[in-house]
Each structure stands twice: as C-alpha cells, then as structure tokens.
C-alpha cells in the first residue's frame, strides 16, 4: 500500500477508553449503555474499569455523554451533531448531485487562524467536508453537494469550523486552476484503498466465528471503525473525477459487516 492510501485509511489499531465509549455510543444501536456494559467492552481491549470510569467522568464534563438513568449513559448534546453525521454512513453517496463545473472556495485569513484550537477544528471540518488546500489560504472542492455554499456553511458549522470562514461559490476559473484543482484528490489511490478495505471486511466476516468472543468483538469494532472513518472522510467527488464504485463497494461491505459486528457485540455484552 503506498503513502497516499495509508493516509486515506490510516488507523493505528489502538483503542482508548474515550474512543471506545464514543464509538459505541455513536452507533446509536443500542442508544445507551450501562457502566457495566462499558466496562465489559473495555475488557475486550485490555482497558481496566478505572480507565472507563475516568473517561466517562471527563466526557460528561464535556457534554459528550449524558446520564439518562442511574449508571446508564447515552450521547450528549456536545456529541450529537457528529453522531448524526456518522449514522448517515449508509446513505453517504446520496448527498451528491449533478456537477455543473462550479466550485466552492473556503478562504481563511488571520482572524480564523488567531486561535490555534479553533483553527485545528476548522481544518478538521474542511477535511471532513472534502475541501483540499488549493493554494495559500484557499481550500476548494467541486460544488456538487446538496445546498451549494449555504449547505457547506451549515455542515462546516456543525463540525465547529470558524464562523468567520468565508465560503463562496466560484465559476470561470482560469485555465491553470481549472486543470490543477481536479488533481488535488488522489482518486486512484482512494479507490484502491477502499477495495482493499472492503476485502478486509469480507475476510474478517468469514473467519470471525472461529475467534474467541472478546477478540471477535475487538476486531469488529476496530475494523468497522476504520471503514466508517474512511466512508465519512470521502470527499464525494463528481464522477468526472473518477468512478465512485470503490466507495459504493466499501459501503456495501460495511453493511454486511455491521450485521455481523452487532450480533457479536450483543453476545459479548450479554456475557
């Protein structure tokens, strides 16, 4: 696998208590977990109970999780926007519309960069919305998603991008930019990475029944997490930039794997 493909689907395979809790709650199925279930989930990754409890306390303070009953937790208001986005992985391709050749440009300046933490969130939001850095202080993407510039502003806002970020629709690029902008996304490497990951999901789904239940639970969560991260980070480019069959095949493979993973986790949490 080359460097571009590593960047696209990179996941170091580790799981922290914080990541585990959010990953489980972000699925929305079931919508809530008891402390005991979260502790048992942590055991599959070698995370001890105090680590789970400490992470829960911190996530509650950040409003990323909230208690709905004594010792039972669900996603908090601070995590709800991202959860809703994650839950849409199955219909990710539906966000695309026909591309008329126009572009969206996001333009940043000193105001957006003034706060380092806010700037990191802005860069993350731009990446998740499929913008690529085209030149100094300018990020671009084809204007082929629902809502055009206003829709992009709303989605960036839910991802905590700087409110002052300028997002505009652009047409009539000069010849140099019109030729260069479509090369900002490594379409062939992305497709190859998706097909490789789809194959990994299918292979895991075949062998998982022969694995000890804790190991099977850990593998399905880690591999499923990697697949959903790849799906949600896809820039949803027009077909003119390359075929979307890699993403559609990855989504189909993840749909199959999701059913396997949910059954394994239900069995594991029941003890």
Automatic annotation (TrEMBL):
InterPro entries: PaaX-like_N, WH-like_DNA-bd_sf. One of its GO terms (biological process) is DNA-templated transcription. Residues 28-72 form the Transcriptional repressor PaaX-like N-terminal domain. Pfam families: PaaX. Gene3D superfamilies: 3.30.70.2650, Winged helix-like DNA-binding domain superfamily/Winged helix DNA-binding domain. This is Transcriptional repressor PaaX-like N-terminal domain-containing protein. It comes from Sphingopyxis granuli. The lineage of its organism: Bacteria, Pseudomonadati, Pseudomonadota, Alphaproteobacteria, Sphingomonadales.
